[in-house]
């Protein structure tokens, strides 16, 4: 007689935005688990083996609700203790590594966390990770899978972070634009599902292979050309534009547009995870890039030549039409 192991009870909290629902859909397909989906606002009821948190790193939702990462982490750990879970899966962000000129490319999970101290979001996330690690140390046998994705993005809309990073690219005179990584919501969701299914323990970066060069990001964005400014002047102008709601870049985020913070995905790949969407594909889908940004240089030349020929033909036709009118109306 064979016995079936009881299903592990999984409590997915923080489901308020598009990423959260992608994760919920993916976890629903994981065999051997009993899933409960919640926003995290309502009281949790019952006992659970695993708590999955997707809300504390959702920058846009936190901003809309006027909440902080710190308060969200307190709620997460309170729920985890109440339901008796021994496994946490938390979606954080690769921004906790910080963006510095001396960062190795790529950053591995062993890199020291150096978030920009003026960027509250990244600083609070680093503190949240420390609080989660303290929860693990409270009792033997607890496990934590800390996932650090690059900028999550998908077709539901462009995140404010993605817009800000793109807008800040190439605005400083004499500086090369930093490369950027974007990860599709589907790939983040599959990483969460893998962490639950395989009961992963440790820190894991979540990103496609490689990155997008800064000049390619600008080309894909379809932004009009701006005159780069000297570094200090760019900071002052950017701060003023943000203060008076004329610019999309909060001051603390500016360092992330100037220095690299590209992460390696080897550790998560070794567990069986594979990205299905490239950086460029994720960016294009999530930002609805203008159609002309996707045309190859050769095709652009062909279209430009065709447009020129069309303009010449139109000009000749117009000239011929006026000539005929004049000929018909000339004095006899």
Give the total of beta strands: 8
- Average pLDDT value? 80
The total of helices stands at: 11
Gyration radius, to the nearest Å? 25 Å
H and E string: EHEEHHEHEEHEHEHHHHH
From the spread of the alpha carbons, the general shape counts as elongated
Structure classification: alpha/beta
Tell me the distance between the termini: 112 Å
User: Reading side by side through the largest sheet, how are the strands ordered?
Assistant: 2-1-3-4-5-8
Portion in strands: 5-15%
Sheet having the most strands: 6 strands, parallel
The low-confidence runs, each spanning 5 or more residues with pLDDT under 50, are 170-175, 240-248, 289-300
Q: Which range best describes the helical content: under 10%, 10-25%, 25-40%, 40-55%, 55-70% or over 70%?
A: 40-55%
Describe this structure as you would to a colleague.
- This protein has eleven helices and eight strands.
- With 332 residues, it is of the alpha/beta class.
- The strands form two sheets. It has a six-stranded parallel beta sheet with strand order 2-1-3-4-5-8, with helices on both faces.
- α1 (18-27) links the parallel β1 (8-13) and β2.
- α1 (18-27) packs across α6.
- It is elongated and about 105 Å long.
- It starts with 7 loop residues before the first strand and ends with a helix.
- The relative contact order is 0.13.
